[in-house]
Write a structure and sequence with these properties.
The chain is α+β, with helices and mostly antiparallel strands. It is 20% helix and 26% strand. It has helices spanning 24-27, 43-48, 97-105, 123-130, 221-231, 252-268; strands at residues 5-6, 40-41, 52-59, 62-68, 77-81, 86-89, 111-113, 134-137, 151-154, 158-160, 165-169, 178-182, 191-195, 199-200, 207-208, 210-212, 217-218, 238-241, 247-248. The radius of gyration is 18 Å and the shape is globular.
Length: 272
């Protein structure tokens, strides 16, 4: 029995003799089936193919973990370290002994939290290896392709992992789309880990919001306004998106609110 991994989105499925007929996550209009058609791999095959993980420190106690060469969507996870918790934010498909050893050197894991289904990847593999819970919003339960007792579905608009770390449901890209607010980071100014629920764009003074990024389906003005109002009370100096270079380094809170205003204004403006 193999635990098959979709090559396009990186999601691992429950064990089976043969690959699934299709990947529901990729068939959804927010994603796509790969240009060569539906293709599958396994963790063992990824290791044979030469994939490895690299670690980069973004700032003290925040380490990025990403796979090279790029696999599937290409996101990198973030290891957030506090005195009491080591939280893996988001996830990627490759997990090997070298990665486990490096994370253990950094204090191991106490929990995994994930922004949305495109980054569920091999989350159960990670949770089993480190013996920790996975926190997912219950609104996205249908997109879990490998069920596990380690998954803890939370509901509502916020969930406190600790007095320092809060999961916030913003929705938008997915109904349960979640960001992580780390209150005491950045010398007490706060940090937001957003995946691509809030997307850091090429001009890193700005962010954006989409229902589907690869298929360019926008969100409504009302939905972006709701997201802006939901995140406004939380202060954060920096915002970390889903890739190593996607970081708003300063005044990130203002950048998010300004970007929401620009997005809404653009939708409502008729250009001739």
């Amino acid at each position: 029995m193999e635990k098959w991994i979709c090559k396009t989105c990186g999601t691992q499925f429950a064990p089976g003799e043969n690959p699934p007929e299709a990947c529901p996550i990729c068939q959804d209009e927010r994603q796509y089936v790969g240009y060569a058609g539906q293709q599958w791999t396994t963790l063992a095959q990824m290791q044979k193919d030469g994939f490895r993980n690299e670690f980069r420190e973004h700032e003290p106690h925040l380490v990025g973990v990403g796979t090279t060469p790029t696999f599937a969507i290409g996101e990198r996870a973030l290891l957030l370290q506090t005195e009491r918790e080591n939280v893996l934010w988001d996830c990627m498909s490759l997990l090997d002994d070298e990665t486990v050893a490096e994370i253990e050197k950094l204090g191991g894991l106490t929990a995994i939290a994930i922004s949305h289904p495109h980054y569920y990847s091999t989350m159960v593999e990670w949770a089993d290896r480190f013996q920790v819970p996975i926190y997912l919003h219950a609104a996205d339960r249908q997109w879990v392709m490998r069920p596990s007792e380690r998954i803890r579905f939370w509901s509502g608009d916020t969930y406190e992992l600790s007095d320092d770390i809060t999961l916030i449901r913003l929705g938008g890209h997915f109904l349960g789309g979640t960001v992580l607010h780390w209150k005491r980071a950045a010398d007490g100014k706060g940090v937001l880990l957003s995946g691509d629920i809030i997307q850091v764009v090429a001009d890193r003074r700005w962010v954006s919001f989409m229902y589907s990024y690869p298929n360019l389906i926008p969100l409504s003005a009302a939905e972006v306004q709701r997201i802006s109002e939901t995140i406004a009370p939380y202060q954060f100096e920096r915002l970390y998106g889903a890739w190593f270079e996607r970081v708003v380094a300063h005044n990130a809170h203002d950048a998010v609110l300004r970007s929401a205003e620009r997005y809404i204004r653009s939708l409502e403006t008729v250009r001739r």
